[in-house]
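dumping this here so i dont lose it
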């Protein structure tokens, strides 16, 4: 199948229908706290979506036997007076259950909502009434989970952040109907973009891993593996060769960069001349020129990064035939990332040329694809169910990354999951 034919075939497929999402209900709850056993639901919001469009909604406040904590009122805008004369969960349970019907349930970190509904259902259940909210065998989609899997490069995965990333308007954050509507709209956009974010081998790997669990979204990944089986893997962008073009540019002397109306001030919007920064740069330059040690302490606000980066660059460019190199060891990876992604780029912008620079880290910062593939093969024997789910965000990134540096993605936190990361 050619690429044009494949694109045509994809456009002809209704992905909502094929993924079992032609009709789904986005759900959100506001509660008095985080514990389903001791805290209460104070607002239920649900919005039905048909083929990705909102079509109906359900909203109600629920009575609460004790005054709301001021934090909850500040967060949600819900007051004790809003809850006065509101029905109990028992009084609305039947109507809400009927609204959900057999539709797929969608939520942001949806397990939180399901646990509260299940606990509330148990409290009102008795010999004559079954718990309407056990969700046994129910198909469920978590938008935060999908975002981590298919957009692992995002840095955060809150509903606010996903709305920002996907251009969804969140009109009244932390109110149930508004959050539910936004969640449904986020999912609709995800499904619309999914054909460009998935391919056959990835869908197969995701399905293989999640089928080792009892997660309620298994239906989705099973259907996705069939739907995406003919989509080819995209060609990863290659990393440009590591070299500097600065030889074609006449580089100004050190003082010309830091002085008033100098190179930095003309090219960097937030740069301002600081005598102490220039003084430090001159000390660094002198140490390099004289091949001696220099121990420098400077206060916050000096602009230390540029004060040692620029002299280092100028020193390497003085005698290019010597192929001089400078190693900068930072105290934290965050500072290392700032130096590489911001400060070096600021110098390159001012120089109007690329600069030869590379990030070096210990091996524990990098993915081993061989170990990942072995872990996937034996996942049902080596991993718990929760570990399988936490591994999912690595799979898309692993097939495309050119470096294997875990810092590239936010969908997997190696510091919060050191054991799992140590396995790959």
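and the seq i came up w/
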């Amino acid at each position: 199948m050619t690429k044009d034919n494949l694109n045509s075939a994809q456009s002809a497929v209704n992905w909502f229908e094929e993924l079992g999402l032609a009709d789904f209900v986005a759900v959100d709850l506001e509660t008095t706290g985080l514990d389903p056993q001791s805290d209460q639901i104070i607002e239920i919001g649900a919005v039905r979506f048909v083929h990705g469009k909102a079509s109906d909604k359900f909203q109600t406040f629920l009575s609460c036997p004790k005054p709301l904590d001021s934090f909850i009122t500040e967060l949600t805008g819900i007051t004790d007076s809003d809850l006065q004369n509101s029905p109990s969960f028992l009084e609305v349970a039947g109507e809400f259950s009927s609204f959900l019907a057999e539709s797929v349930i969608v939520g942001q970190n949806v397990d939180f909502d399901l646990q509260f509904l299940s606990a509330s259902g148990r409290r009102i259940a008795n010999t004559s009434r079954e718990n309407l909210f056990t969700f046994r065998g129910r198909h469920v989609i978590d938008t935060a989970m999908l975002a981590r899997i298919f957009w692992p490069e995002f840095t955060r995965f809150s509903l606010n952040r996903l709305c920002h990333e996907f251009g969804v308007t969140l009109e009244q954050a932390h109110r149930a109907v508004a959050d539910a509507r936004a969640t449904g709209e986020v999912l609709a956009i995800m499904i619309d973009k999914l054909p460009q974010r998935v391919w056959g081998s990835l869908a197969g790997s995701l399905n293989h891993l999640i089928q080792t669990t009892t997660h309620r979204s298994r239906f989705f990944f099973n259907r996705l593996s069939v739907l995406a089986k003919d989509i080819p893997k995209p060609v990863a962008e290659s990393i440009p060769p590591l070299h500097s073009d600065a030889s074609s540019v006449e580089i100004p002397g050190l003082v010309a960069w830091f002085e008033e109306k100098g190179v930095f001030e003309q090219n960097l919007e937030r740069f301002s001349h600081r005598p102490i920064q220039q003084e430090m740069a001159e000390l660094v330059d002198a140490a390099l020129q004289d091949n001696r040690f220099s121990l420098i302490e400077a206060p916050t606000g000096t602009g230390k990064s540029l004060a040692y980066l620029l002299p280092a660059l100028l020193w390497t460019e003085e005698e290019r035939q010597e192929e001089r190199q400078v190693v900068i060891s930072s105290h934290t990876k965050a500072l290392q990332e700032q130096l590489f992604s911001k400060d070096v780029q600021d110098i390159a912008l001012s120089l109007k040329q690329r600069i030869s620079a590379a990030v070096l880290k210990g091996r524990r910062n990098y993915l081993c694809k061989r170990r990942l593939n072995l872990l996937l093969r034996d996942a049902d024997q080596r991993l718990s169910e929760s570990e399988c789910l936490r591994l999912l965000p690595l799979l898309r990134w692993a097939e495309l990354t050119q470096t294997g540096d875990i810092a590239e993605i936010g969908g997997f936190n190696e510091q919060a999951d050191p054991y799992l990361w140590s396995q790959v």
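The chain has a mean pLDDT of 90.
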